[in-house]
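Technical appendix A lists one of the benchmark inputs used to test multi-chain prediction within the project. The record comprises two sequence entries:
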Amino acid sequence: GAVVSQHPSWVICKSGTSVKIECRSLDFQATTMFWYRQFPKQSLMLMATSNEGSKATYEQGVEKDKFLINHASLTLSTLTVTSAHPEDSSFYICSARAGNSGELFFGEGSRLTVL
Amino acid sequence: GENVEQHPSTLSVQEGDSAVIKCTYSDSASNYFPWYKQELGKRPQLIIDIRSNVGEKKDQRIAVTLNKTAKHFSLHITETQPEDSAVYFCAASTGGTSYGKLTFGQGTILTVHP
């Protein structure tokens, strides 16, 4: 089946640094990808919708200048957490769909720990 | 926006018993309702989904029912096994260009005791 891959699977960084997470659709083209954040023992919360070739759409309460999303190709979306702080520590998961009504696929997730 | 409520937050059953998890949603435009199983530290796995033009769907030991009028849907797992232990999430989404934009419930921790 289709695969969505995230990298890195985990990352530890110092407070104030920036971290980039990649989400790739390996065997299909994804015009739309979604970024979710999951704090420990909580649900997945949608952060933003990433559209290839255009600006991302952010959910209410998500700072677009802090969470930079780039969807430069049909197989790659990146999430950059800028000036990360300990409260940004979380599990970040992307998902992608194949076409407007295709099946949804989740990446493996990236666990960010900010010291 | 959409709001999805999920109950119970924890569910403990004996192996072989049935488990039922219920969700309600607020947006009458939602028409796609997937259920996910998530093990610790891993990605959510789709276990079953239902669209609004169907009232019930079954796949072996797993079934989902949808009541559009009441805006609620339920997951039924029969003959539970210890390997069913995980966190289960319901979700809702509208179609069209918003398809895939999921609103998740709070999750249910299911524990199946041998």
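The CA atoms of residues 31 and 53 of chain B lie 8 Å apart. The interface with chain A takes residues 1, 34, 41-46, 89, 95-97, 99-107 of chain B (CB under 8 Å). Comparable benchmark entries are summarised in Table A2.
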